Amino acid sequence: QRLAQKVQVKCLVEVMALCSQEELAGLVQAIGPQQALGNLKVSELKDYCKTFGLKPDGNKVAIIKTLGKFLAKPADASEPAKPKAKAAASKKSEAAKKEKEVVAVASPARTKRPRKGGAEKLSSSSSTDELLALGPRLGAEGLPEILGGMSLAQLKDHCKTLEVKSSGTKAQLADRLKDRIINGPPEKKEETAEVSEKDVEEYLAAVAVVLKNEEEGGLADEEAKEEEAEASEAIKKVNAMEETAKALEEKNIEEAAQAEAAEGKVEEAAAMEESEEAAEAVEEKQVEEAHAMEETVAVTLAMEAEKEAPAVEDEAVEASEAVEEEKAEEAPA
Fold first, then answer.
1. Which is it for the CA torsion 312, 317, 321, 326, positive or negative?
2. What is the mean pLDDT of residues 198-202?
3. pTM (predicted TM-score)
4. Which of 57, 132, 192, 278 has the greatest count of CB atoms below 10 A from its CB?
């Protein structure tokens, strides 16, 4: 049923694109502007506004209201606007085609709205839209100067945006861009078809089927809601699993950090122990050296004492003899 609705809507849009003002007005008056115009794109609605000489201001809803108000009028009331619409269409048809092509190929991330002003405002940093809008004014003589000031990357970006071959040297890319900007895109063969009364009847029948399907589409809506709920539940489960995995990862990281810190403390303690052992060894060595020096001094003193002992004894004997001689001399004769 959904596939059938999509096919029907696509058929409606294709038929709508071929409707004239009278046929479109008949559809709007028959089924209302929202049903008749709601399946069209904003760009297609704007094209209708330009064709009818209307100003396409606001969002899609506002544009549909503007077109609906215009097309809901009787044929006599809307007749005076036809010359203006035809004049606007004849003057702006080429501009509308170029605008469609630019919108179709422009990259949203790189394009900007063209700035108002003359071609002298173009520079090497100009956007693709500005080159398309103002480049033709410079012509084949002035445009190469602007393109020559761009880098190879900028030229490739413009080529990709305009669907031009982006391989080759800088000069080749600049030459291709110049031809594309001045001469416009390659002409595409457009198939034209006339809208017959049968097509309008088929369109109205298809619209009736779509409306009926919308009325009976409660079951499809419920199925869609159930699918959406299942998808939401699956997303919640995935998010919960991701959060759990993230928590486990953070826990593992924390445990690894704690283990690393503990290992560092162990290494630090081992280093301190080694340092203490080294200090004790140095102290023991110093004590041993002190004992050795004491022993050496004692031996030296002993040896010197041994050397000096005979002399001391001789001096003692001489002193003793001298004393005895003095005593002998002092004794009475």
1. positive
2. 76
3. 0.25
4. 132
